[in-house]
Amino acid sequence: MKKSYQKPPLTIDEKIIHLQEKGMVIVDKDQASKCLLHISYYRLSAYWLPFEISKEEQNGRACFLPNTSFETVLALYNFDLKLRHLVNEAISDIEIAVRGNWAYQLSQLENGFGYLNETLYRDKNKFHDNKSRLKKEFDNSKEIFANHFKQNYEEKLPPVWMSSEILSFGSLSHWYANLKDPKLRQSIAKPFQLDKTIFQTYIHHLSVVRNICAHHGRLWNRSIQIPLKLANNPHDLGKTLNREQPKRLYNTLVMLAYSKQTLFQDINWQIRTIEHINTLPYGDLGQLGFPNDWENRPIWSMKDQKA
After folding, report:
1. H helix and E strand count, the chain
2. Which long-range contacts (CB under 8 A, 24 or more apart) does 56-63 make?
């Protein structure tokens, strides 16, 4: 049976006392006060969760493991912050490439408006839902190109190369998934050197991870609820993925590294990611889904690779 939420709000000083009473070591109270104010107690609580001993183990009162420090918790938070920036950087580049190739391939069908032909799509109801959502996004857009089109042309929706800049990444993944022709879907996936079925779940997954990043959500020690469909080919990619931890961030990082190499011949992001992963201040990389031999797997191995 549900109960009413009764926890009262606490002042910063009260929060510090509360953490200390649970056993957290706080060396610099001024720093802790600033962090609890600017980051918030609730956001930081996700990072001290692994240090907590449950109420059941402590006769009804939760406490921290011995020597748990606020500084270690903050180091984990900052590790995750930089990880989120790295992930968002790579997704941004890949998202732009997805938008560009989707628009190009569909623009070749007719005069730029062929993407609005319902016969292209498997599910007509989904097509009309996607189209209605696009119309709303276009009508609300304040972009210069959108206003110019609305003021000068009679069509209710713009050509595909404009729509590709208006659709959210999540919406774009739904347009792609609903395409009927497997050859068309494969032509969009081809520059990424991925099979169309792998690519379909990949861009949907990336849109979810992108939204986590955009809302400053936690990536460390997180289960991502929209998993990737794991590829077997190319060989190096298949051998690098971790099939035992399908919902952890590791496989996302593998796919991002692979896409950066494939699309841009860029291993700089990969090098920076490896360097950062090795700075994890607490715990083990299994919390991110990393296998023990990850650095020896093909995508991460720097042998014979040049920046």
Report:
1. 13, 2
2. 62/22, 63/22, 63/23
Q: Tell me the C-alpha distance between 301 and 296, whole Å.
A: 5
Containing structural domain, residue 41: 12-68
Backbone phi, psi, residue 29, to 5°: -70, -30
Residue 253 covered by a domain: yes
Report the number of distinct structural domains present in the chain: 2
Q: Cα(202)–Cα(168) distance, rounded to whole angstroms?
A: 15
User: Could you tell me if 124 and 262 lie in one domain?
Assistant: yes
Residues 102 and 214 in one domain: yes
- Residue 8: asked if its preceding bond is cis (omega within 30°), the reply is no
Rounded Cα–Cα distance for residues 76 and 95 (Å):
28
pTM metric for this prediction: 0.93
Which residues, listed in sequence order, are joined to residue 52 by a DSSP beta bridge? 64
Q: Rounded distance, CA 121 to CA 203, Å?
A: 18
Check residue 240 and give its pLDDT.
98
In this structure, the answer to whether residues 195 and 286 fall within a common structural domain is yes
Q: What is the pLDDT of residues 254-265, one digit of tens each?
A: 999 999 999 999
* Rounded Cα–Cα distance for residues 295 and 305 (Å): 14
**Does 260 fall in a domain?**
yes
In angstroms, rounded to a whole number, what is the distance separating the alpha carbons of residues 89 and 206?
Answer: 12
> Do residues 112 and 244 both lie within one domain?
yes
Residue 19 inside a domain? The answer is yes
pLDDT bin (cut points 50, 70, 90) of residue 57 is: low
Q: Are residues 58 and 90 in the same domain?
A: no
The amino acid that residue 135 corresponds to is: K
